[in-house]
Design goal:
Length: 646
């Protein structure tokens, strides 16, 4: 959907000029001639961009801006203020009121559209920008002939009949290359190229200049203007295509660097001088050079302006009435964000060394004329652009080196991880082999000891029988320990096969087994119905065997033993718990129970292997859950665990 632009200006010429520029770039426009008409449009329409004139016949543009910023639907609209007032305090009022940009009149419609796109964070138009070419020529016949030739080679072609129109088209849609005629109505081709080179968004675009001259001096002037190549008009179009392909090949090999700051629109030059006539004269000359002048009559206005919107270059009068120009230089240089901004001091006497020592980049005597000052401004802006370009190149190279270092580190990490995984798999195979060895090699001698001891006990005297019963009990404990170790090994290996398990049914099975094993005991067991969880049924059954078995064991000395198995909320999860009213333990020592062979009670009172809770923790960890315990001595214990969705 096309973005909508509100254009408010009392001049019909301005409204139609901006309407055509925005409409050509795919925007929808709403035109208003005054304050009241705009207020009605705010309630009626939804806008993405607003271009507001500061001076309106029936109201103030800044008041309209305040209304817009306070409007429920338009508070985030990108706003550009248009004004013929170039004074700093006018800009400050607009920017501080909430404008995103302040554009002085006379304006460049293409730059206004391009800046609006930037504020909207609009993406580049579809297609390969490297294959787009802008042709600037006042001859319709030649433009169409060149368009057909370029289109046949697969280029996307835009055309313009004058240098001014070409710069607007380039600002709105930066091309991959520019072909411009040397002789044009208005500004000539060399001036077009110079202005392209001064635009941060366009300065790397290859430029070919067409010339009808065979003069060697003209060729030097063309190249000095910044052209990448020139083609004589009398030559075949194949030469144009060949030279275009050559400069595009060179352009494609350059680093794709992002442009810092706001590259669209003319460079802003801040003029600080108390002489109104001098400011007006320089303002007109800077407009001719393609810059946007910002006029400040005192140091305070200049500092306030730079704090809100930095300039691309600052020109300071050495003899300001309230502050010396050198002191103003020093104050500007003390601001971190302004240290690289070019500063040129203009004075009557020869004060070059003093001004450079104060932080100025250059000094121009007023007697040398405005032409000298304009040349110095152009030179410093070019140098600053080169400095910015070099800094971006360094930043880009550093970024690429950091990415390469991260890639190398990630590769080394992946290799080390693969090696560890391989070693872990080997260790697991060893553990499986060890488990098999334990199962066969240890169980067989234990069974032999148990069997022969059981046979010999009735045949010996009472004292020897008592000693053999101790041997028999020790063998049984060792057999139970082997079983526990095997269960722990099984909990650590193998894949988890998750299904939707009826945890209630599993708990009831475990309780029934305990009742059959110990039919004499009377234990009140409550199991909450309908408990289900995504888990491995065999592993979770082992969890319940250990937890419910512990609760059964530690309630042997309770007067009315009771066990409760159910669920309870645990933050955003549901926890399963096993609660008893048995012996209990200090809660601050609960972590010891989950360590292998960790015990808090004498084995003679409550026998066990000390492996069961370690097995429980390993199984719950493998399911991605957590397990914990709460208890008080003599008041029972609660063991809880979670089984989250995979």
């Amino acid at each position: 959907m096309a973005s909508t632009v509100l254009i408010v200006d009392d001049s019909l010429t301005v409204r139609m000029d901006l309407h055509e520029a925005f409409e050509q770039e795919g925007f929808r426009t709403v035109l208003c001639a005054g304050h009241a008409e705009a207020l009605a449009a705010l309630d009626r329409e939804q806008f993405d961009v607003a271009v507001l004139d500061v001076r309106l016949p029936d109201g103030d543009g800044l008041d309209l801006l305040r209304r817009l910023r306070g409007h429920r639907r338009h508070a985030d609209v990108a706003v550009l203020l248009l004004s013929s007032e170039a004074e700093v305090h006018d800009r400050l009022r607009g920017l501080r009121t909430g404008a995103d940009e302040y554009v002085g009149k006379p304006y460049d419609a293409g730059a206004v559209v391009a800046r609006s796109r930037e504020l909207l964070h609009a993406t580049a138009p579809p297609g390969d920008a490297h294959r787009s070419v802008l042709v600037i020529d006042d001859s319709l016949t030649f433009r169409e002939e060149l368009r057909r030739a370029l289109t046949a080679e697969g280029y996307e072609v835009f055309t313009a009949a004058s240098g001014e129109e070409g710069l607007r088209v380039a600002a709105a849609r930066p091309p991959g290359a520019i072909i411009v005629d040397g002789v044009l109505p208005g500004i000539d081709g060399a001036t077009v190229i110079r202005r392209v080179r001064l635009d941060a968004a366009l300065r790397n675009v290859p430029c070919l200049l067409l010339t009808a001259s065979d003069d060697y001096t003209t060729e030097l002037q063309i190249l000095d203007a910044g052209a990448d190549a020139f083609v004589r008009k009398q030559e075949d179009l194949a030469v144009v295509l060949a030279k275009l392909a050559a400069v595009l090949r060179k352009s494609a090999s350059a680093l794709p660097l992002p442009t810092a700051g706001s590259p669209l629109g003319p460079a802003k030059v801040l003029l600080v001088d108390a002489d109104s006539a001098y400011l007006e004269a320089m303002s007109g000359l800077l407009h001719e050079d393609g810059y946007e002048p910002v006029l400040a009559r005192c140091a305070d206005d200049a500092l306030a302006m730079l704090a809100v919107q930095p300039a691309d270059c600052t020109i300071i009068d050495l003899h300001l009435p309230e502050i010396d120009g050198r002191e103003l230089c020093d104050r500007i240089r003390s601001v971190p964000g302004l240290r690289d901004m070019p500063i040129i001091v203009v004075g009557v006497a020869d004060a070059l060394l003093e001004c450079l020592a104060a932080g100025a980049d250059d000094y121009v005597r007023r007697a040398d004329g405005t032409g000298t000052l304009r040349a110095h401004i152009r030179a410093h802006l070019r140098r600053q652009q080169l400095h910015d370009e070099n800094r971006r190149i360094r930043d880009e190279l550093l970024r690429r080196e950091m990415e390469a270092a991260e890639e190398r580190a990630a590769r080394k990490y992946a290799e080390a991880r693969a090696q560890l995984v391989e070693e872990l798999e080997w260790r697991n195979k060893e553990l499986e082999a060890f488990s098999g060895s334990v199962s066969h090699d240890l169980r067989s001698p234990l069974q032999t000891i148990l069997s022969y001891t059981e046979l010999v006990i009735p045949e010996v005297d009472p004292e020897s029988a008592q000693q053999l019963r101790r041997v028999y009990a020790a063998a049984q404990r060792m057999n139970a320990l082997v079983d526990a170790l095997l269960q722990l090994a099984r909990a650590n290996r193998g894949q988890i096969r998750r299904t939707r398990v009826d945890v209630t049914a599993l708990a009831e099975e475990v309780v029934e087994e305990l009742r059959q094993r110990d039919p004499v005991r009377e234990v009140a067991v409550t199991v909450t119905p309908g408990m289900r969880a995504p888990c491995d049924p065999e592993l979770v059954r082992a969890v319940l065997v250990n937890l419910v078995g512990n609760a059964w064991k530690f309630t042997t000395r309770a007067s009315d033993p009771a066990i409760d198995i159910g669920t309870a909320p645990a933050g955003d999860e549901v926890a399963f718990y096993v609660r008893d009213n048995g012996a209990g333990f200090p809660t601050d020592q609960a972590d010891q129970l989950f360590r292998p062979f960790g015990r808090l009670h004498d084995s003679r009172d409550y026998p066990g292997t000390g492996i069961g809770l370690t097995t429980v923790q390993r199984i719950i960890d493998r399911h991605g859950g957590r397990v914990w315990a709460e208890s008080e001595p003599g008041r029972g214990a609660t063991f809880a665990f979670t089984l989250p969705e995979p």
